[in-house]
Amino acid sequence: MRLTGSVVISLEVELGWAKHDLNEYDHLSEDRRTETRTLSNLLDWCESAEVPITFDVVGHLLLDACDGNHEGRPGDGWFDADPGTDVESDPLFYAPDMIDAICSSPVPHDVCTHTFSHTPCGEVTSETVDWELRRAQDAHDEFGIPWSRAFVPPRHSSAHERVLKQNGIDTVRTPEPCRLIQMNVGRRLYHNALSPYQPSDGRICDGTAVTPSTPYISLGCPNLSMGQLDPHPVFRLIPVSLRKQWHLRRLCRGVDRAIQSDATLHVWSHLWDLSNAHQRDIVERFIAYAGARQEQGEIDVLTMADFGRVIRQTN
Q1: Domain NodB homology spans what residues (predicted)?
Q2: Topology of domain 6-313, per CATH?
């Protein structure tokens, strides 16, 4: 028995934690005003279309305040960027209001973990990953939201299977293999911005449900401004309206392919990628399209946790 056609949308909510180890914040708006507005818009669109999303949230964002000390995590200096203040003082590092907005939606969105502090799992020990997941679960408990069984490792890093299982995680997003590193700059730009999105079959690997995705953002449009960052110069020669049209068609055709092949289209992005007017326009129309196809009974829009449950029933 196969999983019928489905769409999974996952959105990484990281804010200041995304590149805190690199000391990079220019992709974000001041005081996250634009990101907060984008999330509000997104929740409204999802409610209108009855489309659920998996929000991959850095656990520290659930806190409304802290002193900057997080004892027990192996390694020195990782929390140097933590301001040790509160949401009013440093809203890029604390965002309980955003999580509350997600959980207050009538749509059954899923808040899964993206580790506590955006730790690349493949670059640290299993003990560190275990600390990150346990601390994230504590943050979920303190906030009063259930611990999701889904997980998105930061920066597509590999996760420790044993550690995931002992922390109750049984569904993971994993990028499909890609030959980008073997491509020249021109082909890489084409592949990232224009190549068709291909749905794929999920799989069970050692008891863990794997939902494949692209290694690069796919919900947001890489040939437009991403958040507060300008696109690659080569794309600026192309009218914005045409770039938007290309990407929306790319997304909608991916849904159509998932329907035709009874496969799963998993698209993802960071919240900050979508935080400008052009990106929001595309996403609003895509969510409406996916919702309409779901309403017609042609496809299911699933959270990652739901995807994991369904694929276990069909294997």
Answers
A1: 38-168
A2: TIM Barrel (3.20.20)
Q: What is the pLDDT of residues 95-131, one digit of tens each?
A: 999 999 999 999 999 999 999 999 999 999 999 999 9
Domain limits, the chain: 6-313
Residue 231 near residue 222, CB atoms below 8 Å: yes
Using CA atoms, how far apart are residues 117 and 14, in angstroms rounded to an integer?
A: 9
Q: Report yes or no: 112 and 304 within 8 Å, Cβ to Cβ.
A: yes
Distance CA 1, CA 113 (A): 30
CB 214 within 8 A of CB 176: yes
Burial class (CB in 10 A: 0-12, 13-18, 19+), 113: buried
Which two three-digit tokens encode residue 14?
């990281």
